[in-house]
């Protein structure tokens, strides 16, 4: 036991020596303007100047310092009593056993520990003892280590442009197939006609002049046709009808020595259109976006040119069987080169945009209302506030690098050529023999690719609708952003649905009143029509209110609270760190006194050893919180992909063989929503769990500061408040007669403010259903889940 304690003490001394080494101490240096120091000064006063190499005040300038002055005096007396006790017992043991201090006490370590304990509880500055100032100094250099970690994260974002590799959803092979088909069409038709009737005519369509410099390499500028910037590779007719008639007449007179001129209409051999998504460019990142677009156009044009020899070989083989077979590896080689270049250009563009964004933060973020502090300026403590800025970078770069290609195949005008089927057959033969990449990156024959069997028709319909809804939820790379979009969509749908029902109800109610007032045969006939319609509208509005009561708490949770979870847990973690530091400063003189306890061997006694593990936790906690913060971001992305991989196949297998409909769809979406919420809370919990639990691996206790419980309580208050607000709205609606109008519920309201004879109210069974549903929603979202 003694040797173990001694080794730990030696390790601690070595660690302090390393921190004091000038070449390594820079990573723990703290900028005097750091926000953490500003906040620490509110708590501990100017004593924190020791962190940056200064000296503290002679007299207390904070309430904690004033209280510590009394505590330190008491602990100094207590330490003196311990020293006196050890001296007396040591003297008696020496006389009794004949050894200095006796056999129980170490003659080397006990004197050192006695002196050290007295020095550690002596007043130092601002009412604080030496040990307290040491705790503050250690915590301050923990801030420096966290700031260095934060800076490294921002540098990584600048260098790579993303927290994780983007998912590029471009189907490179489909683009290549479309180009190859168009080129086989073009060369085949021209070969059959013995005349160049179809040729390349690329065109660029832009929405402003800033991108006009991309109209190069044979491309022509056209009138803007769409909002987005598009580049189109066309395989168009050389002649129009008039020019084709003149060329044909001239060729006919000379006996068609150069073939038969013809017109095949617009884009007879198809086209490939690259459409670049609009992102929140701003002036700063516009050059990077334009450079990316121009580079993609260039490598796409290169792919088209690379496939031209292959298209000619396919046409030659179709015309003459004696010609060599087309190279079955040529297509895959061209596609892989295109893919490599595309990914390189995408990574360079992401790096450029991220660098611009982060540099913008460093000189303050004008987009954030009420702040003039940049990400690098404030240090680690503000990391939680930049969560969605990081996700914004990932989202906008993800949008930018995924160009939307639109492929159009050969038209009927080209297919009507007598020899077209021959060239098409040759192309299909090549497609069946060519080498491609499978899902694992292996080069295989195209025929080796497998396909999945179709589900039964009803389940297939439900799965398609479920996938569409899930895709809406996962529009952004971060699933929480997607779920927030779903929440906002639900809120908007409920609001629009209810507002749209008001004029419909008023019109139907007015028609019913007019028919009632008219009387007679005409009025009775009109009433027979208006009354059922009004009843249907009333029931529909009642169901809409019930749906709103059930959905709005979930929608509000998704739209507002869930996206705020990273910030909430980060703030809770920062609060926990401050609490741990205050606790350590208060405990420091007591901990210092325990060094005088005679138990154990070595410099650190048995009772004092646990304090050093707490100090290590205090020092590392800000840095470990950053690890948890960034890990939670990447974990959410990974788990979003896991859910996409497993969810629909599992639901498909679970419901196979059953008739599926609306209930199945709603059940799928409910399970998906609950799953994402649970994953999000588990992932973001890393912000505090990493700091709480990582020291277990070296024997430290888990410093659980209760961040998760605090967040769950906040969630419960938020959800409960939303539920009560919605329930209160429904009760108010019931008391007011259920419709717009005066205090009595409108012109047809009852004398006591209840609903009139033609007015619905959320009462009876409908109200009971809504109340029970509201209770279940609250339970589902409560912390106990």
Automatic annotation (TrEMBL):
Keywords: Membrane, Signal, Transmembrane, Transmembrane helix. The keyword Transmembrane helix applies. InterPro entries: DotA_TraY. It comes from the Bacteria. The keyword Metal-binding does not apply. The chain crosses the membrane at residues 70-88, 108-128, 543-562, 568-592, 626-647, 659-680. Residues 729-785 are annotated as: Disordered. Residues 1-25 form the signal peptide. Coiled coil: none annotated. Residues 738-756 have a biased composition (Gly residues). This is DotA/TraY family protein. It comes from Microbulbifer epialgicus.
């Amino acid at each position: 036991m003694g040797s173990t304690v001694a080794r730990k003490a030696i390790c601690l001394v070595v660690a302090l020596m390393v921190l004091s080494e000038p070449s390594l101490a820079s990573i723990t240096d703290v900028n005097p303007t750091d926000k953490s120091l500003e906040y620490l000064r509110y708590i501990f006063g100017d004593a924190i100047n020791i962190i940056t190499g200064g000296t503290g005040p002679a007299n207390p300038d904070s309430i904690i310092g004033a209280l510590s002055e009394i505590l330190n005096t008491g602990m100094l007396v207590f330490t003196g009593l311990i020293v006196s006790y050890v001296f007396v017992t040591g003297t008696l043991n020496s006389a009794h056993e004949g050894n200095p201090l006796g056999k129980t006490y170490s003659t080397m370590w006990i004197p050192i520990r006695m002196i050290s304990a007295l020095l550690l509880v002596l007043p130092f500055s601002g009412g604080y003892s030496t040990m307290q100032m040491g705790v503050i100094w250690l915590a301050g250099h923990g801030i420096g280590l966290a700031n260095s970690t934060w800076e490294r994260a921002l540098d990584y974002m600048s260098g790579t442009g993303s927290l994780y590799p983007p998912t590029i959803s471009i189907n490179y092979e489909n683009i290549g197939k479309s180009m190859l088909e168009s080129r086989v069409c073009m060369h085949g038709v021209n070969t059959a006609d013995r005349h160049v009737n179809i040729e390349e005519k690329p065109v660029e369509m832009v929405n402003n002049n800033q991108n006009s410099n991309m109209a190069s390499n044979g491309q022509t500028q056209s009138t803007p046709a769409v909002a987005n910037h598009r580049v189109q590779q066309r395989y168009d007719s050389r002649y129009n009808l008039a020019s084709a008639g003149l060329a044909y007449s001239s060729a006919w007179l000379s006996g068609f020595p150069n073939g038969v001129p013809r017109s095949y209409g617009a884009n007879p051999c198809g086209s490939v259109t690259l459409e670049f998504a609009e992102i929140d460019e701003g002036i700063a990142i516009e050059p990077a976006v334009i450079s990316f677009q121009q580079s993609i156009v260039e490598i796409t044009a290169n792919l088209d040119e690379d496939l031209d020899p292959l298209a000619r070989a396919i046409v030659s083989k179709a015309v003459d069987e004696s010609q060599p077979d087309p190279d079955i590896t040529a297509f895959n080689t061209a596609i892989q080169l295109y893919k490599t270049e595309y990914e390189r250009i995408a990574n360079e563009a992401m790096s450029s945009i991220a660098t611009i964004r982060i540099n913008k933060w460093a000189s303050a973020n004008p987009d954030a209302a009420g702040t003039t502090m940049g990400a690098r300026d404030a240090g680690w403590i503000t990391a939680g506030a930049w969560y969605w800025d990081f996700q914004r970078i990932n989202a906008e770069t993800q949008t930018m690098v995924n160009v939307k290609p639109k492929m159009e195949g050969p038209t009927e005008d080209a297919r009507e050529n007598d020899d077209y089927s021959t060239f098409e057959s040759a192309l299909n033969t090549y497609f069946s023999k060519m080498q491609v990449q499978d899902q694992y990156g292996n080069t295989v024959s195209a025929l080796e690719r497998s396909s999945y069997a179709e589900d039964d028709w009803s389940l297939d319909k439900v799965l398609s609708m479920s996938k569409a809804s899930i895709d809406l939820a996962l529009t952004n790379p971060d699933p929480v952003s997607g779920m927030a979009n779903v929440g906002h969509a639900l809120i908007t749908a409920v609001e629009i649905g209810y507002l749209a029902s008001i004029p419909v109800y008023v019109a139907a109610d007015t028609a019913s009143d007019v028919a009632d007032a008219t009387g007679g045969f005409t009025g009775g006939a009109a009433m027979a029509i208006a009354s059922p319609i009004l009843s249907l509208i009333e029931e529909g509005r009642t169901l809409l209110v019930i749906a709103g009561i059930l959905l709005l708490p979930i929608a509000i949770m998704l739209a507002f609270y869930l996206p705020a979870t990273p910030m909430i847990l980060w703030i809770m973690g920062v609060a926990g760190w401050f609490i741990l530091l205050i606790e350590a400063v208060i405990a420091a003189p007591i901990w210092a006194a325990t060094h005088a306890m005679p138990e154990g061997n070595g410099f650190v006694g048995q009772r004092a050893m646990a304090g050093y593990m707490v100090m290590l936790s205090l020092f590392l906690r800000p840095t470990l919180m950053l690890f948890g913060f960034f890990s939670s971001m990447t974990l959410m992305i990974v788990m979003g992909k896991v859910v996409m991989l497993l969810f629909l196949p599992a639901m498909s297998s679970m419901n196979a063989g059953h008739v599926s409909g609306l209930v199945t769809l709603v059940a799928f979406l409910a399970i998906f929503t609950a799953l994402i919420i649970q994953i999000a809370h588990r992932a973001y919990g890393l912000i505090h769990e990493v700091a709480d639990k990582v020291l277990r691996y070296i024997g430290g206790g888990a410093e659980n500061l209760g961040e998760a419980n605090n967040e769950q309580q906040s969630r419960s208050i938020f959800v409960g408040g939303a539920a009560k607000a919605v329930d209160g709205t429904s009760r108010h609606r019931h008391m007011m007669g259920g419709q717009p109008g005066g205090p009595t519920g409108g012109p047809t309201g009852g004398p006591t403010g209840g609903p009139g004879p033609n007015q619905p109210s959320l009462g009876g069974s409908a109200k009971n259903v809504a109340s029970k549903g509201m209770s279940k929603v609250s339970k589902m979202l409560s912390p106990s889940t």
